[in-house]
Design goal:
The complex is a heterodimer of chains A (195) and B (340). With 195 residues, chain A is α/β, with parallel strands linked by helices. Chain A has helices at 17-34, 50-64, 70-73, 120-132, 175-178, and strands at 11-15, 41-45, 74-76, 108-116, 137-145, 157-161, 169-173, 188-192. With 340 residues, chain B is of the alpha/beta class. Classes of the chains: A alpha/beta (195), B alpha/beta (340).
Chain lengths: 195, 340
C-alpha cells in the first residue's frame, strides 16, 4: 500500500507508561469499589490488547485484596465470530477463548478492552458472553474512551476520556503485544493523523 | 484465500492458519451453545456427484455451526441424471445465490474447472475429485496428527508444524485422493512420509513425489513410525486384478492383529492408527486395530467438522471479493409535479 501523504504522520503521546499504570491502578480500585469487594469477580479481556490489560488489572486487584488469586479470575473472550463486519473487513483469525475455571455463570464479569470507539466490539462481546453462560452483572472497563459511539453502549470504568476526530487514529502499544522482535518494550498511547 | 482446491498449492503459513483456526473452532464443539453467528445469511451448497456419508454430513454440520444456510444437492435424483452439464448445474446454483460450493465429483479436476471459469462467483471447496485430491481430509488428518504430536511434546498445538513426524500411508495409493492430498500437505508441514503398497496399487510417477516408497509394511513398521494411515481398498474403482486375493492383501498390507501386537513388541507405544473411513474391517484394518486405543478414526471424524468450519470461515469471511449484494442504485426522487 502506498502512502498518500508525503509528510510524516504527526503522532503525539497522550498516555505514557506511568500514566497507563496509574489509570489501571485507579480502575482496579474502582472495580473493587463498585463490586463492594472481590466476590464473584471475573475479568475477561478482549483480544488482542484487552487480555494483557486484564492480566495487569488482576495483578493490581490481587495486590489490593489478598484473598484474590490473580490467575484464577482472568480470562480471554474472543469476539471475532460475533462481529457484524465479517463480510466487509479482511479475514480475521479467531483467538482462543479462555474462561476461568469457575466459569461465568452468576459472576460479575468485567469486560476489558483497550479502546472504546464505535461500541461494536462490545456488542459482539455481549453476544459472545450469552453463548458461554449467564453472568449476574456485566461491566465494561476500557483504557481509552475516544467517543464516536454508534451503539447505545457506555463504559463503567474509563482510564482516560480522549476527545478525538474520527480522522485520527488512537494506538495503544503494550509491551506484551507490541514489542518488535529484538526491540525495546513500549507502553504508551499515541494519537496519529488528523489535523 | 478464495478457493480450497488442492493441498499442493497450499503454503505453510496458510496451512497452519487453517489448522490454528480449526483449533479455535473445535472449542465451540465443547460449549453449551455449539453455534457461532459468523456466516449468518451466507449460503453453502453441498454439490455431491458421488456418494458420501461423512464428508457431506461433516460439511453440513460445519456450515450449520457457523449459522450458514445449507443446500444439499445429490446428483442422484437430480437433473444431472437427465443429462444436465456441470456448467448448467453450477449456473443454476449461482442464480440461487450460493456463496460457497462444496463439490465432490467423480472427475479429477471438476472443482478446478468450477473455480477457474466464470460459471459461478462463489468460493469453491474441493470435497474430493476423482483420484486427484481431497484437501479437507488431509487437513483433518494433519490436525489429528498435530494434536497427537503436540501432546507428546507437551506443548500447545497452535502454530506448530509436523517436523520430524514419521507417517506411513498404507494401501490403495493408486486410487486414493486422500493419499495424494496427504503427501503434499504433510511434506509442506515437514513430516516424513512413506507410502506402502503393492506395486500394482502405486501410480505411475510416484518416484517423483516428495516421499519414500516401500512394498513391505512389516519393514516400515520395524523402521519406526509415529502414525500409520490405512487407506480403504476402493472396490468400486478396482477394474483390474491389482492383487491376487483379499486374503493375500490383508496378510501383506492390512493392519491385522499381529501387526497391532508388533507395535507393542517394538515399543512404539505412541504410534497412532488412522483411517479416513469408511473402513473395510478385516481387509485393510482388523476390528481389533480399528477399535484399539491407538485408533484415531473417531477423533478424525470429530476434527473433520472443526477443520471444515475453519475452511468455510476463512473462505467466506473477508472482503477479498465483491459483496454478493451490490449497492442499490442511488435513490432519485420522482419529479414532483408542481402544484398549480
Amino acid at each position: 500500500m502506498t502512502s498518500v501523504t508525503s509528510a510524516p504522520v504527526p503522532a503525539r503521546v497522550v498516555l505514557s507508561q506511568a500514566d497507563i499504570d496509574r489509570a489501571l491502578t485507579r480502575i482496579a480500585h474502582e472495580i473493587l469499589e463498585a463490586n463492594k469487594g472481590s466476590r464473584d469477580l471475573v475479568l475477561l479481556g478482549i483480544p488482542r490488547r484487552g487480555y494483557p490489560l486484564a492480566l495487569r488489572l488482576a495483578d493490581k486487584i490481587a495486590a489490593a485484596d489478598a484473598t484474590v488469586d490473580a490467575a484464577a479470575i482472568v480470562g480471554q473472550l474472543d469476539v471475532t465470530m460475533f462481529r457484524d463486519d465479517l463480510s466487509h473487513q479482511g479475514t480475521r483469525p479467531p483467538y482462543p477463548t479462555k474462561l476461568p475455571r469457575t466459569g461465568i455463570d452468576n459472576k460479575v464479569v468485567v469486560l476489558i478492552d483497550d479502546v472504546l470507539y464505535s461500541g461494536r466490539t462490545i456488542r459482539a462481546a455481549l453476544d459472545a458472553l450469552v453463548d458461554l453462560g449467564r453472568p449476574r452483572i456485566v461491566r465494561l472497563a476500557v483504557l481509552i474512551d475516544r467517543g464516536h459511539r454508534e451503539l447505545p453502549i457506555r463504559a463503567d470504568h474509563v482510564g482516560k476520556n480522549l476527545p478525538t476526530s474520527s480522522a485520527e487514529k488512537v494506538r495503544v502499544r503494550l509491551e506484551e503485544t507490541d514489542t518488535p522482535e529484538g526491540g525495546t518494550p513500549v507502553n504508551e498511547v499515541v494519537i496519529e493523523g488528523g489535523a | 484465500m478464495k478457493h480450497l482446491l488442492s493441498t499442493q498449492d497450499l503454503s505453510l503459513s496458510n496451512a497452519i492458519r487453517i489448522l490454528d483456526t480449526a483449533e479455535e473452532m473445535s472449542a465451540v464443539g465443547e460449549r453449551e451453545v455449539k453455534k457461532l453467528p459468523a456466516l449468518r445469511g451466507r449460503t453453502v451448497v453441498n454439490l455431491f456427484f458421488e456418494d458420501s456419508t461423512r464428508t457431506r454430513i461433516s460439511f453440513e454440520a460445519a456450515a450449520k455451526r457457523l449459522s450458514a444456510d445449507v443446500i444439499n444437492f445429490a446428483a442422484k435424483g437430480s437433473s444431472v441424471s437427465k443429462g444436465e452439464s456441470l456448467k448448467d448445474t453450477a449456473q443454476t446454483l449461482s442464480a440461487m445465490g450460493a456463496d460457497a460450493v462444496v463439490i465432490r465429483h467423480w472427475a479429477s479436476g471438476a472443482p478446478h474447472r468450477l473455480a477457474a471459469t466464470d460459471w459461478i462467483d462463489a468460493g469453491v471447496i474441493n470435497a474430493g475429485d476423482g483420484t486427484h485430491e481431497h484437501p479437507t481430509q488431509a487437513l483433518l488428518d494433519a490436525f489429528t496428527m498435530r494434536r497427537h504430536w503436540a501432546r507428546l511434546a507437551g506443548t500447545p498445538s497452535e502454530g506448530t508444524d509436523l517436523k520430524g513426524l514419521r507417517v506411513a500411508i498404507v494401501g490403495d495409493v493408486l486410487h486414493s485422493r486422500v493419499a495424494r492430498s496427504n503427501v503434499w500437505l504433510l511434506r509442506t508441514l515437514g513430516a516424513e512420509v512413506t507410502l506402502v503398497a503393492p506395486p500394482t496399487l502405486l501410480p505411475v510417477g510416484v518416484e517423483q513425489w516428495p516421499c519414500s516408497v516401500s512394498y513391505d509394511l512389516d519393514q516400515t513398521l520395524a523402521n519406526g513410525v509415529d502414525a500409520v494411515m490405512m487407506l480403504r481398498v476402493q472396490g468400486e474403482r478396482m477394474n483390474a486384478s491389482f492383487f491376487p486375493s483379499t486374503r493375500e492383501y490383508s496378510r501383506r498390507w492390512g493392519f491385522d492383529d499381529n501387526r497391532l501386537r508388533a507395535l507393542d513388541d517394538l515399543g512404539m507405544t505412541d504410534t497412532i492408527i488412522m483411517h479416513p473411513g469408511p473402513m473395510n474391517r478385516g481387509l485393510e484394518i482388523s476390528a481389533a486395530a480399528a477399535d484399539s486405543p491407538r485408533s484415531t478414526v473417531l477423533a478424525q471424524v470429530r476434527n473433520g467438522v472443526s477443520v471444515r468450519m475453519a475452511a468455510l470461515y476463512l473462505l467466506l469471511s473477508g472482503d477479498s471479493r465483491e459483496p454478493a449484494a451490490t449497492r442499490a442504485p442511488a435513490y432519485t426522487a420522482p419529479p414532483i409535479k408542481e402544484s398549480i
